[in-house]
Amino acid sequence: MRIGHGFDAHRLVQGRKLILGGIEIESDAGALGHSDADVLAHAISDALLGAAALGDLGAHFPDTDERWKDADSMELLGHCSAQVSREGYRIENIDATIIVQRPKLAPYIARMRENIAARLAVSLAQVSVKAKTSEGMGYTGDGSGIAAYAVTILAPVS
Ligand code: MG
Questions:
Q1: How far is the CA of 36 from the centre of ligand 1 (A)?
Q2: pTM summary value
Q3: Could you say which of 18, 50, 58, 83 has the lowest number of CB atoms within 10 Å?
Q4: What is the pLDDT of residues 13-53, one digit of tens each?
């Protein structure tokens, strides 16, 4: 078994969409980034790559590369999953936490899980997504940013 951990954070600004797990969230601010700035997809991608010791998302999809400008991060997640498969692993489970003060994400969690499970070709029970606030503290609490953490376990394909 291999364990992987991922973290990501993005600035929240006016005039950008907020996309989490490939789902567009109704919000007065969106995440700033070279790609679609899907902080959840990025944290999970890094967890997958990390578990297989394949480096990080930035190394695979540099933000200096025009090809990844406004990239659909769920596509990038799919690429990471394919790389992990090529290394001879399958995903056992994923557990992720998004930290943001607002908007409230509870109404979107089920759709995020479904979307991620479908992209990774795993069952819904293998994908956990949780959302928390940081009780008003720090950049995730004052509305200036959003963060996500993810862990995953990979098992060798027998
Ligand atoms: Mg990112």
A1: 9
A2: 0.96
A3: 58
A4: 999 999 999 999 999 999 999 899 999 999 999 999 999 99
